[in-house]
Amino acid sequence: MKKRIYQSIISHYEFCLEQHGDNHLGVDWPKLEDVNKRYRVMLELAMLSSNKKQSYSLLDFGCGAAHLLEYMMNQNLSVFQYSGVDISQKFISLCETKFPNVSFQAIDALADDSKLGMYDYIIMNGVFTEKRELSFDEMWNYFTSLLSVVFKHANDGVAFNVMSKQVDWEREDLFHVPYDLLASFLTKQISRNYVIRNDYGLYEYTVYVYKK
Predict the structure, then answer these.
(1) 76 DSSP assignment
(2) pLDDT tens for residues 76-112?
(3) Distance between CA atoms of 134 and 65, rounded to whole angstroms?
(4) How many other C-beta atoms are found inside a 10 Å radius of the C-beta of residue 174?
(5) Of 77, 145, 150, 189, whose CB is crowded by the most CB atoms within 10 A?
(6) Helix or strand run (H / E) with residue 121
(7) Residue 202: phi, psi to the nearest 5?
(8) Pairing of strands 154-163, 119-124
(9) How many C-beta atoms lie closer than 10 Å to residue 103's C-beta?
């Protein structure tokens, strides 16, 4: 993979933050009413797992402005012990200002994942929905490489979302992934234990991948 081929994605989100500030538009989610729906579906990764515990360590990978943490606090979801990671120092600095007692790190996991740590569950909400100027093949390479690295740091499972191919039209800047291509990659390279969620009314789908 070319060095930092994903820089255009990082720059796009930092531009959104600069233009719109600390809100859903600042992390490029167009509709506020859809945001909490995504958070609920992402967190159900743990609810569907066979590994039941009283508390879970949770990494918000690509945490942006830590809006997932705000959702968890509003829903009183104390079962999750939250940490956040983002490749953008601008977003991490914002998160540290908002939540000084929470662990946040700026990490480029493809360059060096040694400081990433281990967590029961890892959520990658919005990390793979936009490809911006990348070709599909470039984005696929980025997606498969990053997911392979991140999955090693999950004790139990990972959740991520991508754009669906089952739409009236596809946007060139979004990452629309066919089910069969994704299933083949997961089965051969990651885990045969996965769930595809396409039941929450958005033009995307969420995937839970479990270690066992």
Answers:
(1) T
(2) 999 999 999 999 999 999 999 999 999 999 999 999 9
(3) 24
(4) 19
(5) 150
(6) strand 119-124
(7) -110, 165
(8) parallel
(9) 14
Domains of the chain: 7-210 (3.40.50.150)
Amino acid at 47: M
Between β-strands 119-124 and 80-86, what pairing exists: parallel, antiparallel or unpaired? unpaired
In sequence order, what are the residues at sequence separation of 6 or more whose Cβ sits closer than 8 angstroms to the Cβ of residue 169?
none
Distance CA 156, CA 150 (A): 12
Alpha carbon distance 14, 143 (integer Å)? 20
Placement of tokens 């996965």 in the chain: 194
The amino acid that residue 43 corresponds to is L
- The pTM score is 0.95
Which residue type does 140 have? Answer: W
Question: Looking at the predicted structure, is the pLDDT value of residue 168 above 80?
Answer: yes
